[in-house]
Amino acid sequence: MSESLLELRNVSIRYRTGRGHVSAVEDVSLQVPTGASIGLVGESGSGKSTLALALMRLLPQNAEVTGEMIFAGENLVTKTESQLSKGWRWRKLAMVFQKSLAAMSPVHRIGQQMEDVLTIHEPHLTKPEREQRLHDVLTSVRLPNRVLRAYPFELSGGMMQRSMIALGLLCNPPFLIFDEATTALDVITQTQILKEIERLKAEYNLTTIVISHDVGVINAVTDTVAVLYAGQLMEVAPRETFFSNPQHPYSQALISSVPRLRGEKTRLAGIPGSLPDLTNPPQGCRFAPRCPHATEGCLAVTPPLVEVAPGHLVRCTDIPLREVVA
Amino acid sequence: MGRYISRQLASIIPTILLSIVINFMLLHAAPGDPARVLAGKDNPSEEQIAAIRAELGLDRSLPVQFFSYVRELLQGNMGQSLSFKQPVFDLIMSRMPATLLLTVTSAILALAIGTLLGVAAAQRAGTVKDAALSFGNYALFAMPGFWLGLILMVIFSSKLGWLPTAGMRTVRADYTGWRDVLDVMQHMILPVATLTLVQVPIYFRITRASVIQERQQDYMTTFRATGMPPTHTFRRYALRNALLPTITVFGLGFGFVFTGAALVEIVFAWPGIGRLTLDAVFRRDYPLLLGVYLILAIAVSIAVMLTDIVYALLDPRIRLR
Questions:
Q1: Interface pTM, i.e. ipTM
Q2: pLDDT value at position A1?
Q3: Do B227 and A89 touch (CB under 8 A)?
Q4: pTM of the model
Q5: Same domain, A176 and A284
Q6: How far B120 CA sits from the closest chain A CA (Å)?
Q7: B236 in contact with A, Cβ within 8 Å
C-alpha cells in the first residue's frame, strides 16, 4: 500500500440527546491511501453520513468525536474552526452533498455562489482568472457556461449534481467525499454521473470516499469497500473480493438484496428486522439479532475486526467455520 | 419582468371593482338613515325627512342608486359629503397626508426595528436574551393600539409633560417653516411610537422564525463546508433568503396599519383619515364613507402590488417561473 492520505484511528462519534447518548459511529479505523477510492456502504442510519460530516468537521454541537483522523500527517479532530476554514476545508477536503437541489442558495446565481467560494480561498485571483477557473471546472463536468447565470431551480437534478461536483473541484482539492451523490437521480443520469466521477478521479488525481447505500454505485466507482452497520465496520475488502467473496453475513445480505438483471432468476433476499437502537446498543455483535447464522455466543461478545486475508478485514466470530457463499 | 408587472396591474382592477360593490352593499345593509341625521334632532316631520331623502336620491331603488354612483365614479366624481358639504375627494385628499405621515413612518420603523430584533433573537435562539425579546414582543402583541396609545399619553404627556397630548400642531402657534416641521414632529412622536410598537412584534416573529429556519437549510452546510466565514454566509445568503417572508408581511400589513391608524388617530385627535371616517360613520355620511373605503382599497391594493413586485425582484423563483 502506498502512503495513506487519510487515516482514521479508533474514531467514535456520539450524539448527546435528551434520551441519552446515541453512539452513531464506534471505533472505526480505516486507511485511505493516496489515490484510493473507498466505498462506504450501509443502510440508512448506519453512520455513513455522520462519518463524512465528521471528516469535514461539520457535525452539530451535540456530537462528540473521539479518536484521530490523520489527514496528510495532521489530526483533523483537534483543529479549530478558524484553522479548518483557512487551508483545510475546500482546499484539502471537499465534499459533494446529497440533495444537491437544496445545496445552494435558491435566490443567488450559481456562478455568483461559486465565485464567492473561490474568492474566499484565492483572493489574489483577478476577475478574468476567476472566470477562467469557473469555466474550467464546468467544462470538467461537461456543463455549459450558461449554468453560471442560472439559479438552482432552473437546472435539472443531473445538471445540479454536476454543478455541485464542479463546486467541489473548484479549489483543486486532493480529497473529495461523495455523500450519496447520485441517490436522488434517475438510473440513466446516475450512470452518467458515475462515469464522470470515474474520469474526474484520474483527471484531478483525486482520493475519494464514496458514500452510498447502493452497492451498485459502490461497485462502479470504488476500489475498496467498507461496510458500516450500526456505526461499526463489519467488513473492509478490495472491491473484487468484496463482490466475489463477501465474508460477513451482512455484506452477503447487502449484495443479494440487489435485483440482478442478467442470469438466473433468484429470490430477492431482503434483510429482516431493522437497525438496533443506538442509544442502547445490544451486547455482542450488533448484527446478531438479524443474522441468519447467529449463535448464542454472537449475542454475548462483540467480535473483533480480524484480517482474514491481506487488506480484507471482517468482524464476525465464525468466519473460518462457515462455508463461504459466493 | 415587464409581463409580471402588467399581470399584477391587471389583477388590481377586479379587486377594486369588487370592493366597490361590497362597500356599497355593506353600507346600505347597515342600520341608520342619513336623511334622519341630516334633518337634525328637533323632531323633524316625516315630510321633511322624505324631502331630504328625495333631494339626495335616497328614495330610489338600491340598484339605481348603485349604478348612478358607479356612473359618477367613472366620470371621476366621488360625490359630495353630506355633512361637510364639500367634494368627497377633496376632503379625503386634505386628510390623506396626515394619515400617510403616521402609517408610512410607523410601518418603516416597525419593519426596521422588528427585523433587527428578530435577527438578534434568532442568533441567540434558546438563550435568556432570546426569551426576553420574545416575551417582550408577545406582551406588545397582546396590547391593542388605542390602549397602548392612551398609556403612552398618560405617561409622557400627562405625568412627565414631555410631549404634546394630542393634535398635529400646537393650536394658535401658527409656526412656519422649520419651526412648523419641528412642531409636527413633536406631535408625531406618540402616535407613531404607538403604531410602531403594535407592529414590531409582527416583523419580529416572522423574522426570528425565518432566520432560524434558514440557518438549518442544506446550503448553509454547503457554505460552511467550503470554509466560508459564518458571518459572510449569514449576511450574504441566510439573511437574503430569510427576509423574503418579511417583505410579504410588509405589504399585507399595510391594510391593517390603516385600520390601526384610524383608532390611534382618534385617541390622539390626529386630523387624518381615521378621524374623518369616524365622523362619517356617526353622521351616516354615505358618500364620504364610500369614498374613504374606495381610497383605502386602492391604497392597499397598490401597496400589495408593489410588495409583490419587490418580492419578485428579490426572488428569481417568482420572477422566472
A1: 0.85
A2: 43
A3: yes
A4: 0.80
A5: no
A6: 20
A7: yes
